[in-house]
Task: structure prediction
Amino acid sequence: MRPSNLFIKMTFPASLLVTLSACDKDDAKIPNILVPDAVALHQWFDSSTDALTQHYTLNSSAEAEIIGEQGTILQFSANDFTLLNGEPVAGNVDIELIEVYDRASMLLTKTSTNGKTEDGSISTLISGGEFYVNAKQDGAPLKLKSGFTIIAPTENTSTINQDMTKFDGINNCEGDDCDLVWEEADDRGIEIGEWQTAGGVKTVYYVFQNKFGWTNIDRWYSDPRPKTTIFVDVPEGFDNTNCAVYMMYDGEPAALASFDVYDQDEKLFTEHYGLIPVGLEVHFILVSMIEDEIHYAIQDATITENHVEVIDAVKAISEEELIDLIYELP
Result:
């Protein structure tokens, strides 16, 4: 744990560049202090999610198939859409689709692979693809009489695993700030099969979903090594309101753990479960917004018992550069 120190904490308005001046014989100035902007960070997550949202139109009275930009296929039955009150829908329907197959997209959309176990604790999942699907007509939300099928190419996550099951995304919100947690569904699970494409036959996951929202193809992360709790010490002035902290598992390109627990007394980020394997090789990543610019830190580490990762500073980066850095991680 961080030792207790006597200090005076100064609080400034978000997104304000504060210049402090010291009075000495040279009237020298203390360097500028950049304060992370909580509102701008949430807006960045929202805008990044909007940018990844694809829009399609289909005829509700006919069978329809949509193919996403990354090869995800959505299949809808004819006359299956209704208004929320059950009234049948006729005519065109607007479909929204988000495809998430990698850690960078998980970070941008705040869809880390945190799953809720049967006892209510949170543990890490390995994903075979995350999908947001929604339907509207003239802006009015719709629901389904039966459901639709998601077909996800296994090559997008470089994994084929018989243990994959279906998880539904549940939003845990504090005001406008929401974190997505995955809960294992109790209906039809995942099937593995083949799909004929223009480029040949591909191995795919088949998922039947009877509601709109977030769906995840997942399995629980498993490692036989002894487990520990880990903590992340972020720079002064940073906390769970104005920055986000993640851990990326080396060698698992479709897993991203988020630190959604913050100890207000110790000023440390941590995680729910204390199940991180000792000896695991990982990368920690922090993102924030300062002066309307993304600021970040990425640090590699090997997990030790009661691990404390200290992040001393952040630096500015563009979104494109940040995505490239994440893709380059092992």
